[in-house]
Design goal:
single chain, 61 residues, mainly beta, Rubrerythrin, domain 2, 1 helix, 5 strands, 34% strand, binds zinc ion
């Protein structure tokens, strides 16, 4: 598995240097993640303001 980076802004996990969702810079210092399949049905997604399905880091430093 490739190393994933997390977006500093929306916490989206990606292999890219820039977030595909919000174009923010991504960093490799993050901990824990959630997989969101149905953002409109997920309480965590609501809390984290996630609107698109994907993997998201819980903590980004
Ligand atoms: Zn982002």
């Amino acid at each position: 598995m490739k190393t994933l980076n997390a977006c500093k802004d929306c916490h989206y996990l990606t292999e890219k240097d820039r977030c595909p969702l919000c174009s923010e810079q991504t960093v490799n210092r993050w901990r824990g993640y959630v997989i969101v399949l149905n953002p409109e049905k997920s309480q965590i997604a609501k809390k984290m303001n996630i609107t698109k399905p994907g993997k998201y880091a819980l903590k980004v430093s």
